[in-house]
């Protein structure tokens, strides 16, 4: 019966234990040989007589021996009188030493050797932040009456935004990879009222920046029977709080993450006010990265908040399904959420009346019939609704203050990278 | 403050309530008009004076009125003295009447009008089975120390099985949609030991059958430090039990699902024994659908089980990474799980020694260097491991005994269908 490395700490000294894992480190001293074993729970120290052959680092082994108290060992218990059995062939030397406390690898090395370098405990912990965040995301929404959905990633038309989609050869016909579940999550509000989906989205924009990926995980939410985008923002606040709460302090420490406090109410500034705050001209149509940073600094100084929502983005810069701000249609009922001065979430209220869709589509110079499949949900009765999408990789990158979103993505895909 | 329809039952009679939802049905009698309102929780009855104009079915409305006891109303409470406010324009007539107790639509109608027809309560409940199953799947694996992962859906080579992949135009280069996360989940066993992923998989096989989709949701699991495929099957048993336990009896009833009992131990027959049991020739390389049905009937009769695992499938019919059966390499350490006589899950033990991979790849007439990226995990130490994949849509289809897997898929994709 296999024990986990960290369970050694609570094992009765003198008992026989079997551990299985990777040779994390071997150290051959003159009077004794140490084997540090790594499994999913952590590390354990195994003591062998000097001269015992120990397989190379990263080889998988089974160790059977006696649990023995030793204040110097991790958890205060080590394994002595051990027999080491190989579970595979001796491992090749890793491209970077994984037993060192920190992983010292350039970004290209990290990415080229991802299957091996993710094994480093501090690197692995970064993905565990993502996994914990997903749990918190779903648990929060399940508690609020949301239904998980699964929408198609292959779509027949590139209508949402024609310029940045990947084309697929679909049995000899052109089809496209979905750049978001936007149209489908809206249609499903008509069925379930409140829906969420965690899934891949695909953007063929040839951005070669530290914050863009061609495939990433989008945490999508959409809900019906709202008053306006402020109801959407209130759900987003709950979701973020749930994501943070799902990360145990010990994990945050292992991953080097600085967890934010999510305020009871996220500060909100109107886009026009935001421009004034950062000293930008009043006719700027968007916030530049330096404006986002300045707003982040402002929110921290004024409100002690790592988060700030900017509402009312100009309609001209938002997708056609965006709901305008009542009373002043230059602005929209939409928002961006900045986390530590970087855009993390885009959300807002959508149009829900079929006549508003027809008008918005015609205003783009398009024929509403091209959107017939999408629009049937609206013709047959939709509630006022809205939603948001969080980029998982961006979220984790901000938590650990990674310079590049690729550092926290298991197997990133971009303009240049399709492997590993 | 909005109340849900089903919360009416516990509302103090005489209080003012606000409900929001869809006009499920309107019935204009000579002395009174009934409006049945539908929201995500269920139905509520609203009573209006005869002659009150009521918007057409499926229009979204807000109803404010007085909660009034009436033994004939759903939940024993209805809304009287009501004001009905439209939340959108009057809805177009649905292609099929959604207020009828059962949804009477041909498959093409169901699929063409999916955004509207999923609103039917019994149809919606079918997807709720899927959502509940996903919760049970994740909760079971989280409890067993698994980590959720996210692997790329765009891959650079079509190596896993070249014939059935979709090609993507990746910034002018060819790339492919992943037909499974197989290679990646194995590599991640090297990092996390135990991993799972729920995600889309893509199969370009031009099957036009009732059980194949070109895009479906795969529930993938992989774990390290196993003895053999029986350890994998034991985890699968826990997962299935967790999925069934997550479905509330009231949901099963609404969806018309017949929930199975997952036996403490799933009966296992060897492939060779299975052929004999169904009277097939001993040299058959695979089980035909009628053989699967016969084995399902046998498991039910002999073991009272809706499930039966067939282990030892011929190596010749399994992918190259399959681990052979020790002592007789004609057979494999892999299995199919049949649920009510249909294949639901494929799983097994994989190779883990780098030299075994080199040999298996050469035996296909290929050069191992073509798999270099995949094989680096093995060169650097992998444990004995295995896993399985459950098709979500097939699972739900079996629960409700749907004739066609498309009936339980939100927006199916196949050879002929890319919309809605």
UniProtKB/TrEMBL annotation, chains A, B:
Signal peptide: none annotated. The record marks 74 as: Important for tRNA non-discrimination. L-aspartate binds at residues 160, 203, 346, 350. Coiled coil: none annotated. It holds the Pfam family tRNA_anti-codon. The keyword Transcription regulation does not apply. It catalyses: tRNA(Asx) + L-aspartate + ATP = L-aspartyl-tRNA(Asx) + AMP + diphosphate. ATP binds at residues 203-205, 211-213, 343, 391-394. One of its GO terms (biological process) is aspartyl-tRNA aminoacylation. Residues 182-185 are annotated as: Aspartate. Keywords: Aminoacyl-tRNA synthetase, ATP-binding, Cytoplasm, Ligase, Nucleotide-binding, Protein biosynthesis. It comes from the Bacteria. Residues 137-420 form the Aminoacyl-transfer RNA synthetases class-II family profile domain. Its EC number is 6.1.1.23. Homodimer. Aspartyl-tRNA synthetase with relaxed tRNA specificity since it is able to aspartylate not only its cognate tRNA(Asp) but also tRNA(Asn). Reaction proceeds in two steps: L-aspartate is first activated by ATP to form Asp-AMP and then transferred to the acceptor end of tRNA(Asp/Asn). Belongs to the class-II aminoacyl-tRNA synthetase family. Type 2 subfamily. This is Aspartate--tRNA(Asp/Asn) ligase. It comes from Nocardioides glacieisoli.
